[in-house]
Amino acid sequence: MKPYLLRTAILSRYVILRFPLAIVAFVLIVAGVSAGLGTLVVFLGFPILAGALLTARAFANVERRWLPEVLDRPVARPVYRPAPRGAGWFRQMINPLTRSQSWMDALWVLLNFPLAIVAFVLTVVWWAVSVAAILYPFLGWFLAGIPGNQGIPELLGWGDSVPLAVAVHTAILVPILLTLPFVIRGVALTQAGLSRVMLSGNAELHQRIDDLAESRRAAVSAEANALRKLERDIHDGPQQRLVHLAMELSKVQRQLKKDPSAAEHTLSDAIAATRETLDELRALSRGIAPPILADRGLSAALAALAGRCTVPVDLDIQTVERFPAVVENAVYFVVAESLTNIAKHSRAELAMVSMVRTGDRLLLTIGDDGVGGAHVAKGHGLSGLADRLRAIDGEFAVRSPAGGPTMIVAEVPCG
What's the DSSP call for residue 380? Predict the structure, then answer.
């Protein structure tokens, strides 16, 4: 946030500078649209209208460059699509007439003009009165001494005392000075709000649609990758062990009649293989949401993860409330995969997991004191976590310089 006085100065500059532009834009667009509509019957109106819309677009682009500073946030910029490839000269010429945003730009010029006048007058008046309120305690003595200059106290019959006149006039002007930031903010944001809706509203909607489409693609990709990884792990691990176990049991069945002692030894090996298979299945089940997550919530599930990790984990959970299932699943998988990577690759002696809610966002921080080098490039495990979080409008960042330490930060909407 900018300092209060600087913010007021920026908004005032915005209102004052755009006023002459609003006048020029209004005159040009009204003249251009009127001339274009009046000459459509002789086809001369088409290029005139197209030129007027392109002029409106130029003024709209100037406004879009100012809006981020006024609104304190980025503003989407619409894409004016060109004429289709191979289109004739006439189609290319009238291309602005076929774009709805071009007409919205022209309508904005017309609606903005009266609003700009009101905003400019209010801004100039409030600044003038505010400056007078600051200077009047000094200049009032000179003004009150001008012959024939009757102040408000004298008109009200309170006498012609100069100190009284200065005090009364200053008291009247000071409230205007105190309301200056609020008035300037109100008129500036009113204009900026109209401009954002008309000049960037459609672009913001399309941007949101694109973000949702990207999130959906990320969700599908994350689930597909997780499924393929689980299938591969099951095929390469437990499935092979179960096939071997079946063969060992068949061998035991044959040995029972011929060599019971050998059968007992083979059976012992089969029992050991069964335990190894169970351990591997437990490890794989960490990639599937466990019952504890559904029954007791995220804090209990993360505590269980930390307890199973081969690296000591410093767990700091500052919220125990329940969240939507999709949020809890995403956070659980991020922590599970991160702790697995720490145990396998980081050579860390200590890991840290912190979860705190800030407003309608859930902030998750995972770190370790290992060798670093983790990144979210495609083909690595962390890229799947980024896709999973992007699917629910979350954010994912990794800082892991060579030599460590590694810090993973995930932010998920939970409101």
Answer: S
**In contact, 385 and 226? CB cutoff 8 Å:** no
- Spatial distance between the Cα atoms of 18 and 24, rounded to a whole number of angstroms: 10
pLDDT score recorded for residue 264 = 74
180 alpha carbon, distance to own chain's centre: 32
Chunked into runs of 10 residues, the chain (415 residues) has average pLDDT values of: 76 92 94 89 87 92 91 84 81 84 91 94 89 71 59 58 62 78 91 90 74 64 62 64 72 74 75 70 58 79 84 87 83 85 85 88 89 69 74 83 87 82
Q: How far is CA 48 from the centre of its chain?
A: 40
With contact defined as beta carbons under 8 Å apart, do 94 and 50 qualify?
A: yes
Preceding omega of 147 cis (within 30 degrees of 0) = no
Q: Residue 96 burial by CB count (10 A; 0-12/13-18/19+): exposed, middle or buried?
A: buried
Angle (deg, nearest 10), helices 100-144 and 162-178: 160
| In contact, 56 and 105? CB cutoff 8 Å | yes
Beta-strand pair 395-399/351-358:
unpaired
- Joined together, the tokens standing for residue 357 give 């809610």
Task: Report the interhelical angle of 180-236 vs 162-178 (nearest 10°).
Answer: 20
Calculate ∠ Cα 384-203-114, nearest 5°.
Answer: 150
- DSSP output for 308-345: H-SS-EEEEE-------HHHHHHHHHHHHHHHHHIIII
406-413 and 313-317 as β-strands: parallel, antiparallel, unpaired?
A: unpaired
Q: What is the pLDDT of residue 209?
A: 73
Phi, psi of 411 (to 5 degrees): -125, 125
Whole-prediction pTM value? Answer: 0.56
Residue 255 and residue 265: Cα distance in Å, rounded? 10
Retrieve residue 73's tokens: 């946030």
pLDDT number for residue 304 = 85
Show the tokens assigned to 58.
């130029």
